[in-house]
Amino acid sequence: MKRIEVNIDELVLHGFAPRDRHRIKAAVELELGRLLGEQGAPAALTQSHELATLDGGTVEVAPGSPADAVGTQVARALYGGLNR
């Protein structure tokens, strides 16, 4: 079993309360870990050991969405960006 370490230096999200940042971060980590564990590493990670940038695209969330739901959607967008 291979070990994958993901380090996100900066994640830019606009329109969210600063108090939600830790819950969003935790949800991103949890969901990204789940996706990598269940679906494996996308080709972008097996071909390169470092990605300078990753565009996960636009994530649209309903107003008032809980921070953990936002983080889950962000993680799925990032994982999808790795598959492009």
Q: Mind explaining what this structure looks like?
A:
The longest helix is centred in the middle third of the chain and has 19 residues, at 21-39. The chain has a domain at 18-38 and 65-84. The model has no long low-confidence stretch (mean pLDDT 85). The protein has 84 residues and is mostly helical. The two termini are 24 Å apart. It is built from 3 helices and no strands.
Give a summary of the structure in a few sentences.
The chain has 84 residues and is an all-alpha fold. The chain has helices spanning 21-39, 43-47, 67-82.
Shape: globular
Beta content comes to under 5%
Order of helices and strands: HHH
How many separate helices? Answer: 3
| Quaternary organisation of the protein chains | single chain
User: Would you report the number of β strands?
Assistant: 0
* Chain-averaged pLDDT: 85
Layout: helices, strands, pairs:
Blueprint (H helix, E strand, L loop, with lengths): L20 H19 L3 H5 L19 H16 L2
Helix pairs in contact: 1-3
